[in-house]
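Trying the structure run again after the queue cleared.
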Amino acid sequence: MLKKLLSFCTVFVMMMGLVACGDVATQTELTSVANYERTTLELLDATLCASEDGKTVIKVMANYKNDNADGLYSYCSYSVKAYQNNVELMDVSDINGNEAALIQEVKNGASLQVCYVFEVSDTSDIEVNICTPTADANVIAKKVYSSFAGEWKANKIVSKTAEAVKIETYVIKLNEDGTGSYQDKQGTWEYNKESNQIVLTLTAESTGMVLGIGQEDGKTTLSFFEDVYYRASDFQIMGFESAE
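Done. Tokens:
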């Protein structure tokens, strides 16, 4: 009887230990840094831009480090996936071209900046997951990027004559952390999904700029009254002489 009781107590303690461990794992919040088998991959900033074939892509920068004596590269150490609206995005990283660093080996604590490229489907947030390079692909790190974050520029006419039109370049910055600026005036911003607009509130002026969201030639634009803002990577001064 005593042996049965001791056996029962041992099993009970083990079960409680497993439950406790499960609770701890569930409560652990994922960060943007993954560690797996003495390697590290940290998600950094991201930029939305147009690919060579005109499609909108997000370029996610990351830092890869390998503490092993044998050379490894990020593409074999981790599986990185991106999602919009819970649907996986296509990985279009060119490992034989601009993203060749993904298959470049480092060792003995050396690190290397790498870039993952995914084709974006719409203007919703993009969640990037770092997974283990195993069949079950466990998510061990993640970061959510706004598809509106970045620098936006517009041509603003300041004078017009028969000979020339002079403009100034106006700049709006929308940062990943929710801060932003308009012509160096600091503030905060948020996206209103119901109205499909962005509100940029300038701190010093306590006023909000309501930015409309549109499309031009398949690319996202922001508008404030008559001014149309383009991503910095898409911005061009076409047919104007800059006043800068």
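The longest helix spans residues 2-27. Worth checking whether this holds up in the mutant runs.
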